[in-house]
Amino acid sequence: PLSVTVRGEIFLAKSLFHKINLKLETPYANPRNLASGTLRRVKSSEAAQLPLDIFIYEGYFDAPAASHRQILRELELLGFKLNKNIGFFSDADDLTGIRQEHPLWQVGPIGEIEDFLKQAQARREILDYEIDGLVIKVNEIRAREILGFTGHHPRWAIAYKFEAPEGSTIIEAIQVQIGRTGRATPVARVQPVRISGSTISNVTLHNQEYINILDLAIGDRVNVSKRGDVIPAVERLVEKNQEGNSTWKMPALCSSCGSSLSRSGAHHFCFNANCPDQVRARIHFFAARDQMDIENLGPETLDVLIDRGLIKDPGDIYHFDPEVLMDLPGFGRKKIELLKKGIESSKQKPYRIVLQSLAIPEMGQKVIELLIGAGFRDIESLFKLAETANIEALTSIHGIGEKTAASIINSLKTLKLRQRIEGLKKQGLSFSEEKSLPEAQFPAIFKDMSWCITGSFVHFQPRELAAEEIKKRGGRVTSTVTGKTTHLLAGSAAGSKMENALSLGVKIIQEEEFLEFLQSPQNILDFSST
Questions:
Q1: Which of 161, 201, 269, 521 is the most buried (most CB within 10 A)?
Q2: In angstroms, what CA-CA distances link 263 with 12, 185, 186, 359, 460?
Q3: Tell me, what CATH number does 462's domain have?
């Protein structure tokens, strides 16, 4: 049997969108919103009623491919729908043969990429689906392995965004929003302007530095765009105001709590953890769909609870009595019971979701996965890490740098956070995670070993798969070779890490040797000896 995992993008054709939108009681601004809203529906039968389509752009097979072109060819042979507007550019490949194999592709030398990008933007309007740019990828899988990944994107691919549609408007006011971490973000309230099917009236100004660069003041006429066809942004100053207003400056005090705003890096922060706006944002984040996803506790209900002083902290969600809402408009017996059920059900969320929902700075989903993978499977182990200020234990984890490590340790020392966690633990929320049964069945043959991985591999694409095999068996994987490294797993095209390993006397293991050992773990003594 064939096993393949594919990635793609779901969309709704523009021609179909206009016909469907005319029949809706509440029209959508654009096809993207209608498609994403449809996919979020609970019942698949409802989603099936909308004629959504998909383009597949990536595939992962049991037998690793040598190139992205080979992957696309295999996907097409299997009947998956690919976008025909593909460009292939190379100064090394046989372009004639590629043109014959892919007659619909635009094929040429590297120097023709710029023209291809211009042509793609020019034909954007005549396509029956929305696009806001292109993705440029390295073709050779081996080169991708060498380039690797950052914490959130591959180094072998880059998004090229088209110039966004713009509209002209006037800044009527600038207000400061305080987020859950205390960051103060200036937001321009502008005269409503319609861009790409949406009416824009609020535009983020990011920070004081951004405002200074554009020299923005209240009353200025500016050009506003939707970057990526999604995020409103001020692109440029068109005309200065006639009232003589000077460049807007961040206020000295938080508009929510009156505390001083302090600059840290490019941004200003309110460091009062009890700031009302921070509290509100923190509670909303905790209960949101991508976090605890507490059913029937939506933003409007949360605002009612917060405004009435019933909830002042995420932990209060599990303390307050929903019955007190019975006499309020919109809260009947059925809704109260559903709210109780949603709150109680959320207590079953796994440790990693609970941890993510606490909005600890620098501890997003990716970092939490790295921490759990490195053995920090309960909150007590993280607290112990913070108490000893063991930054090296975190930086030794591939994907966590010094800045992230320091932020995590400082946050975990905070008394308010610890009190919140203790309160949630008493309410029955999970703050530990057991190893999965299959993982627990692996013998801890790599215990007390510190591994580093370099080069590209035939059987481990991406090479994080090799790291997982090591972690399953009790080993630790680091991003650099140090005096504490015990083994280097070396694939082809190994670079400076190989040299460092040789100079430090680190045991070097080749891929075939590694595979042979995984299949015959009884050879651990021969394998681990230096």
A1: 269
A2: 44, 12, 13, 21, 45
A3: 3.40.50.10190
Residues 22 and 145 in one domain: yes
Closest CA to 511 of 530, 495, 488: 488
Number of Cβ atoms within 10 Å of the Cβ of 45? 8
Euclidean distance between CA atoms 217 and 47, whole angstroms: 45
At residue 204, φ and ψ (nearest 5 deg) are -70, 145
Rounded Cα distance between 514 and 366, Å, is 27
**Average pLDDT per block of 10 residues along the chain, 530 residues long:** 87 90 77 82 76 92 86 94 94 90 93 94 89 92 80 82 86 95 94 86 92 95 80 90 95 95 92 93 91 89 93 93 88 91 92 92 86 90 92 84 90 93 94 67 82 82 77 82 88 79 88 82 52
Domain boundary at 234, 267, 300, which? 267
Q: According to the model, what pLDDT value does residue 36 have? A: 83
Contact 448/434 with Cβ under 8 angstroms?
no
432: which DSSP letter? Answer: B
173 and 116 within one domain: no
The helix (H) or strand (E) run that includes residue 460 is: none
Q: What span, in angstroms and rounded, lies between the C-alpha atoms of 217 and 202? A: 15
- Residue 368 to residue 366: CA distance in whole angstroms: 5
CA-to-CA distance for 227 and 48, rounded, in angstroms?
A: 30
Give the span between the Cα atoms of 377 and 389, in whole angstroms: 18
Longest dimension (CA), the chain: 82
Residue 85, CA distances (Å) to 82, 125, 500 in order: 9, 14, 45
Candidates 433, 307, 424, 294; CA nearest to 360 is 424
Of 161, 178, 210, the position where a domain reaches its end is: 161
406: enclosing H helix or E strand: helix 402-412
Q: What integer pLDDT is reported at residue 530 of this predicted model? A: 43
Whole-number pLDDT of residue 529 = 47
Closest CA to 374 of 446, 290, 422: 446
Give the angle 331-336-337 at the CA atoms, nearest 5°. 150
The per-residue b/e assignment along 231-261, b for 16 or more CB within 10 angstroms, e otherwise, is ebbbbebeeeeeeeeeebeeeeebebbebeb
Alpha helices by DSSP H, listed for 125-220, are 141-147, 208-214
The two structure tokens encoding residue 416? 């308010």
Burial (CB < 10 A; 0-12, 13-18, 19+), residue 391, is middle
Q: Which of 415, 411, 180 is nearest to 287 (CA)?
A: 180
Nearest to residue 197, comparing CAs of 10, 24, 40, 17?
17
Output 92-99 pairs: Cβ under 8 A, ≥24 positions apart.
98/69
Q: Are residues 372 and 409 in the same domain?
A: yes
- Check residue 411 and give its pLDDT: 92
* Distance between CA atoms of residues 244 and 443, nearest Å: 73
Question: With the C-alpha atoms ordered 478, 481, 486, 488, is the resulting torsion angle positive or negative?
Answer: positive
